[in-house]
Amino acid sequence: xxxxxxxxxxxxxxxxxxxxxxxLYMHHYSSGSNANATTAVHSKHHNSFGxxxxxxxxxxxxxxxxxxxxxxxxxxxxxAAQADHACxxxxxxxxxxxxxxxxxxxxxxxxxxxxxxxxxxxxxESAVVGGxxxxxxxGGIVKKSQKETNCSxxxxxxxxxxxxxxxxxxxxxxx
Length: 175
Hints:
By secondary structure, the protein is mainly beta. The protein is built from no helices and 9 strands. It has one domain: Allene oxide cyclase-like (AOC barrel-like, Beta Barrel). This is Dirigent protein.
């Protein structure tokens, strides 16, 4: 029998799962006047093990200069590999990243979020492990590819495919 502070009941079966497919572009700049990622914890190791960076990446609806900012990718990156690498600093594919995609009014989903976790910023895939607003209970995948690189950063193409259950006021979800 559950504790008196907890409630259980039958699952609500009238909720309908939705599917989303987004094709977006995340701009990651670690230096220069447009820097949107910075090291918050420096490593004492020669291979940057333990180094942590925080980010606030703008996410656009297209690759070109006329693209609209539709979200921001806010979170962190941890250099989590102890193996030596040819270059110092953050090396794509050797760390862990966790960030929230926060959608703005331009996206059509203002205030909604997707939570993303995975191996490094530019690794090929990360998991969508949750969401809020329109994207409640989201789960899926983000396929990433590095599209453009310059001296201050790179642009990452995002293909987001997820399922979610939109929650409206007045349904079975209450405490």
